[in-house]
Amino acid sequence: MSSLFAKSAIETEFDKIIKDLTGDNNVVEETEDNPISTVDIIAEQKRQAAADQERQVRHAKVEKEREDARQKIRDKYNLKKKDEPSTSANSKTTKISNQNEVTQVHEASSAENQAFNPMQMASNTFNTLKKKFGWK
Predict the structure, then answer these.
(1) Model pTM?
(2) Is the pLDDT of residue 37 over 50?
(3) Residue of 86, 87, 82, 52 lying closest to 67 (CA atoms)
(4) How far apart are CA 107 and CA 113, in angstroms?
């Protein structure tokens, strides 16, 4: 690490000596930082904000076009949006499965309150599967 500092110090001194000997003001000093002015920073921020706004408008336009295309397809094939709830026979099976899940959760919470019994847990799981698949 010290060699890096020594090297940069020697290069700086060397550049100064060459500049003094040649009298040339065009020697580029690599160690000199060219800070960016605050005006440039503000202009860049404004440019980025404008580009971001433009991008948002463009994406909104594209999304609207996509939604219009989706709606045309839905109209053509008489489809419903995924957001709309379905009132078909599947809702009955969904209600039944939800009731089974509630029962399982209740049984699980009851099992947590009781001592751990793997045989009871296996039997409960088997009974649940029997109900689900209609086995007797």
Answers:
(1) 0.35
(2) yes
(3) 82
(4) 10
